[in-house]
Design brief:
Distance between the termini of chain B: 47 Å
Structural class of chain A: alpha+beta
CATH topology of chain B: Rossmann fold
Strand order of the largest sheet of chain B: 2-1-8-7-6-5-4-3
CATH topology of the largest domain in chain A: Sulfite Reductase Hemoprotein, domain 1
Helix content of chain A: 25-40%
CATH superfamily of the largest domain in chain A: Sulfite Reductase Hemoprotein, domain 1
Oligomer: heterodimer
Distance between the termini of chain A: 61 Å
Number of helices of chain B: 5
Number of domains of chain B: 1
Strand content of chain A: 15-25%
Shape of chain A: globular
CATH architecture of the largest domain in chain A: 2-Layer Sandwich
Number of helices of chain A: 18
Largest interface: A-B, 40 and 40 residues
CATH architecture of chain B: 3-Layer(aba) Sandwich
CATH class of chain B: Alpha Beta
Structural class of chain B: alpha/beta
Number of domains of chain A: 4
Shape of chain B: globular
Chain lengths: ~550, ~170
Amino acid sequence: MYTYDEFDHALVRERTEQFRDQVKRRLSGELTEDAFKPLRLMNGLYLQLHAYMLRVAIPYGTFSSNQLRQLAMIARKYDRGYGHFTTRQNIQFNWPKLSDVPDILDDLAAVEMHAIQTSGNCIRNVTADQFAGVIADEVDDSRVWAEIVRQWSTFHPEFAYLPRKFKFAFSASEHDRAAVRFHDIGVIAKRNTEGDLGFQIMVGGGLGRTPMIAKTIRRFLPAQHLLSYIEAILRVYNLIGRRDNKYKARIKILVHELGIDELSGLVEAEWERIRESDLKLPDSEIQRIRDQFAAPEYEDLNDDDPAFAAHRFEDRDFARWVSTNVAPHRQAGYAIATISLKPEGGVPGDVTADQMDVLAGLGDQYSLGELRATHEQNIVLPNVKQTDLYDLWLALKAENLGTANLGLVSDIIVCPGMDYCGLATARSIPVAQRVSRRFADLDRQLDIGEMKLKISGCINACGHHHIGHIGILGVDRKGEEFYQITLGGSAGEDATVGSIIGPALPSDEVVDGFETLIGTYLDLREEGERFLDTYRRVGLAPFKAALYQEKLHVAA
Amino acid sequence: MSLLKSGKLVDDPWTHWPDDQAEPPEGPVIVTLKRWREEKPRLLARGTPLGLKLSSEQTPGEIHEDLHHFDVIALEFPVFTDGRSYSNARRLRQRYGYEGEVRAVGEVLRDQYLAFARCGFDALEVSDDETEKGYQAAMSAISTPFQPALDQAPTAMSLRQRRMQG
């Protein structure tokens, strides 16, 4: 894992002092709320419906047991005993007092954490494949590059007041686990035919009210030019991105209006002038960062541990958890365990302080002290010995963290919605809870197979509804909550924006409607098909007919 | 308005000449791009130093062939959240090699001083209650930058590399 040196420590401490001064000026009235707002937003502090919300960065989703214990302490001391993992590998605290925030930042700084650039119209926390460094199918460890970009983007003097927020995501695999195609810039590590490392750079992806899939602006950028190239993109965007309408200010709109070829021309012209500048990465610096992510000291083990096999044979629930929540590790004898934060009827992504302490302990005991947060709002223990999986699972089960539903119906992405958020037009969490209870039977979920259900409480799409196999969007109709359903979205390498199926359903019909769609799929599916495969084969029509005919039937 | 030039409060020798004022103020004047385009011969004939103000919508690229006429380029921040002039300042210095004064005007706030300096500004029009001490405090808010810019301050990366080699 990346460890701070004196420069990183100084940076976060200085930032805390700067913010302490800004808060003091706000509390004394020297700063108006209007003047304070962009300053606090630059530091992850939002004003929500009921209280301030502090968003803490977990760069590329990697954190340690010690850091998680500190988050638990913060949840207890300054909040209401819980935190919420977001779709961008951050954690949010929902109830801090403004006057406490500088102290919280001090406590974060003590464990090499911060809230820098987790909001505001700047370069946000960089995200990456949650399996980086431990999965076999990657060409490089994308955390190395995410860290290099994190450092470059931190207090970048030119890009603090962009037209709109700007999000990076990194992957190094054909298999996209980080939704890179729905970020302002998606970076995918590749090797060319000579074996040199470089990046496919994609630009202009995003969700919100205008969902768009990123377009490739460069097929292969040699690795040492990463910073100069993205600085060129950011400079062009800062200058010509739209500022007249906040809903048209993301770079996706620029890509759409200008066309990728014209934008590429402007970027390349800028890049030509700066590519040989100090932004060019020396090999020694790349290596220095790479060393920070060196593989831990693994034991020399074999796959197919007999005890592991015996436990799976003897305990069906354990076998099921392994089949859904455990992924193969690049190191023989090890496994990647994903811990579902989606228990039956729970709030997706919420973790209590006690659970954080348990997870931190399990991270120490079974995962070499390391954890990951995923954009799907779950937690990963990336370095678990196969022989330890059974004990880990027993410990998780005891804390209501052992749900075997990864990638299934109840593994729902959901935004905070109107329970917290000032932008929301409907509640989203209760819908997720109702679906989760309706589909509580895990055998039934396994039979349905892979299902990415994503729920947003407003058109800003924080719950990624556009890219759910089934997406649900909450809307307000004259004070009543309605839910619009989309089908066929995908966040992965087969990136697709879902299609709206028809008129929105009232709140009390949305779970029935969802169940009808699942039933229609089960009737139509052919051998081995996931929901998404069946939908792609048969199209929207049969689902639409089933959903609305059923409605007619109910009305009659 | 006060002028902070390289961190010192100084008397501003320059006067802005707004478009709605027909006759020029005395001495060195800063004109808009519109006036420059419409009255270039008259302005040059005055024989007094000239400065140019660009709004955040305008870019140095539009005027780069004329830059040598100006001792000051004033870049505007109509609101402090409009960040275009940071990139315009960098382009002025980096792409067009402009070596005169680059001045930030408009909503110029203390929390942005460091960013101004790092993007190539060397003069700031600030409110009358600003002090040199306030400027120094803002400039020392972050001691080591994490990306190269135009201020020549050694970056964390360069210091780490130096240490590794040394």
